[in-house]
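We store amino acids, tokens; thus:
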Amino acid sequence: MHQATDPRRLWQRAETILLRGGHLIDPAQNVDEPRDIFLRRGVVEGLAPAIAREADLVVELAGLVCAPGFGDLHVHFREPGDEDAETIATGSRAAAVGGFTRVACMPNTHPPIDTRGQVEFVIQRAAEAGHCRVHPIAAATRGRAGQELADLRELQLAGAVAVSDDGSPVANARVMRRLLEYARTWGVLVITHAEDPDLSADGAMNEGYWSTVLGLRGNPAASEAIAIARDIRLAELAGARLHVAHVSTREGVNLVRAAKARGLPVTAETAPHYIALTEERLKSYDTSFKVAPPLRTEEDRQAVIAGLQDGTIDVIATDHAPHTQVAKDQELSAAPPGMIGLETAAAVVIEYLHHREGMELSTIVRLMASRPAQIAGWGGGSVRLGEPADLTVFAPATAWMVDPEAFASKGRNCPFRGERLRGRITMTVCGGRLTHEENLVFHPSERLQAQLV
């Protein structure tokens, strides 16, 4: 940094800010070229290859990629009820460090987010923390019990961006049909946790060769495929939108692809760990690799990557799922499933999809910024004149070693511990506010420096 003043203090006091020398990737506007960005009071006032204007603060972004703020459609912040694992404050801070300006939190808390008051509580706590926008996903059924529909319209009006019983499926087909019918009436997005609980019950890992070798009960790929097929058919019957969470199997990808080919309003997400990891990692019996749905085969991993490349899978979402160390320090069959992911997501995706698979960075930005905004309808997803700046700045070639002990999240259940990844978030700007910064050069004007003396 140019001088000792804290970057956030400089940013807060600067009326005008010039972000200079970055490469802007904005798929929503087909922009992939060098652009300077000029902000006035946090609002985008200028976008051009080179801006020659004086500013209170100049931030050097040479060699860095600037993108619309990343959005995550699937996180678990554990508050209320399990604040020892994560809070809205610590989770949203981890999101900012990971380059996210918006996240959608799932309702499997204690109590579940199934009332107006619970939705408003989440929004208020996130606003108090001030790290990123947190959009609640409300429970689809009361108490997430899968029997009686929650008040979808009330939850929507309170600020919920979608409904889901994530963590468990809506197992009853009749209830799921009614859910989709009511959701269509109000334009509510339904997110399905696609799993047949009778098939997957007590499965500690993917059913197959490695579950047999390791002597662990398996969760078959058919559990996901059967549930996706059912819910696509029910969504077609109801004429409703459906979003499929955490697709992990070749069969699941093929089902979503076929639904899109038929013109159905079906979207889907996968998570970074299904891009990078396979079931073989569980031969260590390390519970950090236990997740739901489980890590699958190499064939499934390749199918997920192919689905991302051809647009079958719309979004990469972290499924950030923190647990206490005590909860994870059990034998594999007893430990809860889940991995943290907010602070490693960008690097895992850049490493495994860009550097190893050759995916264009513009496609990655679309998967992590543009499409989440379109599907959730929460705004943003693009850098536009006259709008508050939501920006994610990253160094795609910068390598770093994953150390969960240094994370902002309370969770330490990270499957990438000790791995060297290329791709580092260097700045996050949410609503014109600087929420994360590391190793950037700031040049304050003489006027700004005088104000801070």
In short: The mean pLDDT is 96.
